[in-house]
Amino acid sequence: MTHHGDTQSAYRLGAIYPNDVWVDIEAQELVNDFRDFMPPTVELISAGTYIPAVDATLEAGIRLAENGDIEEAARRLMRHGPTCFAYYCTTISFARGLGMDLDIVHRITAATKKPATTTSTALIEALKTLRLSRVVIASPYLPDVQKRFIEFLEGHGIQVLRSVSLSLKDNHSIVPPDTMRKLAESADLPEAEAVVVGCTGQRLATSIEAMETRLGKPVLTANQVTSWHALRLMGLHPKLAGRGVLFSQT
After folding, report:
1. Burial of 161 (0-12, 13-18, 19+ CB in 10 A)
2. Whole-model pTM?
3. Residue 10 pLDDT grade (very low, low, confident, very high; cuts 50, 70, 90)
4. H/E element holding 220?
5. What is the mean pLDDT of the chain?
6. Do strands 159-165 and 194-197 pair parallel, antiparallel, or not at all (unpaired)?
7. By C-alpha distance, which of 128, 127, 106, 130 is closest to 117?
């Protein structure tokens, strides 16, 4: 499989993400964080979906889950021959409640005949794989979105011991990484088995190892779990140095 005649790649991930930054250099930084969890054998190609200039409320997330843009992006990516698809968005994949992340998975697969995952789907798979059931969470979300995030996790048997958020109405994807890192570390409790960072706008790939060392427990970020689960759907189980406990498992 080749991409415009350049390097050979046996596997290709079609990444779909809600483009809430609109500015290409900022969107590229976001996609680079997805790519930071890929081994060299996997090529990542991406397509952003349009996000209107409205507050990032739960209601907005529900509308964006249902407007057809996700599967349309998947259809457009099909001309590049992806092996698998991943929808990189936590909010939009959990906004409609328990099980509705799988509705997005099924719609992508129906449109492309390819396997797919979403961030919320992948997060649950990662927590199950690591046998983690007591977590703290950090995010940039508004309160109504954070509440649904907690409900989604608890609906899957995950106990949320503490929840912290920046309560931002927009600009989630340009939060300085150190701001989110500090918030996530501040959320930790001794009895928590892991720290979970919601929102694929959070660019923490190069921070995870140091965070885990400081906290003494796994740190799961939205982009990390989404990339990890997509790789598993492709039959790949790479160990990636510096990308957290999740990527130290085979």
Report:
1. middle
2. 0.94
3. confident
4. strand 219-221
5. 94
6. unpaired
7. 106
